[in-house]
Amino acid sequence: MVVQRVPLQPTMPLPPKTAHKTAKTLFSAHLEQASTKQLKLSKHASERLQERQINITANEWHNVSDKVQEASLKGVKNPLVLMEQAALIISAKNSTVITAMDRMEAKEQIFTNIDGTIVL
């Protein structure tokens, strides 16, 4: 007579360690990408920047992007970003510049549908 014991809990084979590392690496990469989300330009904003001859350096874009992310963490969804040479309205949710204008033009405007302001 042969007696076999049946385990009380079903056992499943453990995934190979490389699969666990890969998942962890993919998560880390996704987290890093999310935290360094770059701003995109809408077609409208791109046209406005060209029409108004507004030049923003890569360093300035990086600074704007960082501040928009910071504002987003505080619950701001549509900030107005006031820079030395331009005013930008940005969708923090989509990381997209909605529109742009130079500072002289911005002085004469009423801004609606914004819920925060970033002054650089």
TrEMBL record:
Q: Which domain of life is it from?
A: Bacteria
Q: Do you know which Pfam families this protein is assigned to? A: Flagellar_put
Which named protein is this? Flagellar operon protein
Organism this protein belongs to: Metalysinibacillus saudimassiliensis
